[in-house]
Amino acid sequence: MNILDPQGPIAAANKTILIDSIAIMLAIVVPTIIAILAFAYWFRQSNARAQYLPDFAYSGRIELVVWSIPTLTVILLAGVAWIGSHQLDPAVRVEGTGSPVRIQAVSLDWKWLFIYPDQRVATVNSLTVPVGAPLEFELTSASVWNVFFIPQLGSMIYTMNGMVTRLNLRADNEGDVQGLSAHFSGDGFPSMMFDVHVISPLDFPNWVSNTAKSGAVLNADSYRELARQSVETGRPVYRLDDPRLFEFIATQQIPPSPGPTLKTQSAQSYLENQDAR
Amino acid sequence: MLGKLDFSAIPIGEPIPLVAAGIVLVIILAVLVWAGVKGYFPYIWREWITSVDHKRIGVMYVLLAMVMLLRGGIDAIMMRTQLAFAFHSDGFFPPQHYNQIFSAHGTIMIFFVGMPFVIGLMNLIVPLQLGVRDVAFPTLNSVGFWLTATGALLVNVSLVIGEFARTGWLVFPPLSELTYSPGVGVDYYTWSLEISGVGTLVAGINLVTTVLKLRTRGMTYLRMPMFCWTTLASNLLIIAAFPILTATLAMLILDRYLGFHFFTNEGGGNSMMFMNLIWAWGHPEVYILALPAFGIFSEVVSTFSSKSLFGYRSMVLATMAICIISFMVWLHHFFTMGAGPNVNAIFGIASMIIAVPTGVKIYNWLFTMFGGRIRFETPMMWAVGFMVTFVIGGLTGVLVAVPPADFLLHNSLFLVAHFHNVIIGATLFGAFAGYTYWFPKAFGFRLHDGLGKTAFWFTLTGFYVTFIPLYAAGMLGMTRRLQHYDVAEWRPWMIAAGVGTILLTIGILFQILQLVVSIRRRDELRDATGDPWDGRSLEWATSSPPPAFNFAVMPNVAGEDAYWTIKSKAKQQGLQAREPDYRDIEMPRNSPTGFVCAFFATVMGFALIWHIWWLVAVGLVGAFATFVAFAWRDHDEYVIPAAEVARIDRANLAERRAAINQAEIPA
Fold it and tell me: Which of A18, A70, A160 faces B399 most closely, judged by CB atoms?
């Protein structure tokens, strides 16, 4: 999951900006740290050779320099930030080979549901994508916030109930990488890791047809069951009943998933009494 | 009768908090019994609990912060231990407990360690530096302190009765809404912070008024010590930002208690609004904590370099620039929410701009050292450690202000390492520097130097050994708030961070040892001069500890570095100061208002958390009645007669002269 070992163009571009920014800043930070330590050491009280300048409290030239150095650095970095923000806007399409793959990700408590509306299949905690193809993600949440993040493919993005965020990625090398949720979402949060299998474009249709043959069907009922609070250790796959499932979740036509019930009996009965009133 | 409360609220299944709380209760009881047997209660009531003296209140704030630092530190030790072991296993703490630990750690460290520490030091020192006798509203000051203590108490009560929030320290909805957090944890959080937030706000109003309206003769704005400037900036931020926090949490409370839909998933609620509002408070909060530390370092670097602060006006400008810009950057906390590139870029650049005045400050401290005669006493060690550490924290901070870089690092342990780097590096080091620097002023004797330096080296090393691995883990994609993990490449870094925590703990133990040893050897460490560090500002012009009225005669300020000027003039002209013209001094009377008010606020907060409505009424009416009783008071001041002032001042002056003459004989 090393972000310095990118497996796609977005992650590589993110990483370049990260390294460049560090390099630009190190150019002034390292001399500053050396100067701090050197001044502190040289001007120690016991050093008889150091000159004592009790009245050296202002110098216009030095002031000009100390305001200029950070200002110039920030101007440079601001350029990096401005250009980078526009080039790497998560909503911007990524070029790639082959037809784009649409993936609709829903964060559930506490697992990831990946819907492939065009292929009419869905998977949980496991994402399979063809190498080189543009990956167009639409994301939402069934309940609380999460963040969809595949460190080696780049840019993370929030998932929020009743809202849709967009993310475009591409995987350039076949193999497996891992993804996770990067926003705390409750007790099962650590289990929100998922596998990403990057396979050849030739194998992708096979994978789709194998998955579609799976017995389980994902419809509103099985979705409701899946969306209950639980941790999923397996990697279930589904045939998708209605390709509009994501839309129903995102527009709350399927209501947000329920939370836990109260731990203590008295608190539970107390609240129920309140509701009854 | 008792709302949601019954015996099942006591977490019998989780022995660790119960045992810990049991030990704390035993210690508190032992202290109470000891104080009772020794007959200290009347003294504690008269001189501390009901005191409206800014120095006493400042000391109590710092004491509260240090006690809570231990609590928050124990939370940190538990978290790092958990993560060092929770590889392919559940570790020591189940999620419902672990999630409380990190939520409590953040809440406590920000609200009940950082805030009271800096507010305490400001309370203690700012009136002295301004050359005045007290803050603008002494009784309000006491109320502010006790309401803060109420918040801290409620957070700790959650250990034993019920639970604390399991949502992270900023209780993001919808996770914190009733649907997903039906327990009382979030209610403990919101009510603690609503009550202590009022305390913080009145402290802010008080200190701003003090700096703006109460300064001694000749103390113009551009002669104020840097610490007063940063106090002003920090408290202006408190006044502007804390109402946002209070209002935001009030909306969350309405959601949870009365079925409103401000931030819920349903009913048109908008959880993104909470994120915006909480960070509109949260980012200024960072500077509320950091600016006073910058002020402390300005004082320390200048004093121990035996030079005036370099580029004073530039520093003032930088401070006020930070104060204003810090309100314009909150969106950088959620670049990954999917806002457009223009929004992200603009807020990213605004965040970088803050680095300019901050960088200027670093360079000005650097040039303050240039040409100085630097004495490496403990506070100066903290200052140099801070400068190096903070520069690194600044670098990583500007890095995450670049949106595309943040897309990889947001919410990761890299970010956790970054904000610990700046908060520990600036606020905590600053608090420790200020504590060591001003301790002799508050108590009349110094802290043991050797032990202080040992503590410094352990803390500094421990800091790097703990947080450099977290930077590395963040680079490996590890996110925060994980209760366990299965990724092998993260493990070594988690173990390393655990080792660092041991070093940090040793550092804290040395600080405790330093305090104990210093109290026992207080006669050796006594400072009769009132000016142990050859100081430059007015707090050193009076005795240590200062009399209740601070200055027998209000000092007259003729330039920057007020006391330095007075001292050099006295040395040049070689004259013993003339006997001043002593007058009667009016001082505010002690008042139990703050304590009683906070007692009722505690009752009310607890009752609100558990839905015990009749008790809520008792608390509310009690607190209001206390306030009304105070408003109807007849006498709020007492007079210290001129003769008494003269007696105290002559004794102090004699002691100082004796000490100074003694020092001059060998030379």
Answer: A18
